[in-house]
Amino acid sequence: MVRVVPIISRGMDSNVYVIQDEKMAVIDTGAGRAMAERVREVAGDIDIIINTHAHTDHCGGNRFLGGRTLIHEKDRTEAEDGTFYRTTFLTGALAGIDIDQTLKEGDVIELGEMKLRVLHTPGHTPGSICLYDDERGLLFSGDTLFPDGAFGRTDFGGSDAEMLASLERIADLEVETLYPGHMAPVTENVREHQEFALESARMMFE
Ligand SMILES: [Zn+2]
Question: How far does residue 124's CA lie from ligand 1's centre (Å)?
Answer without folding.
Answer: 7
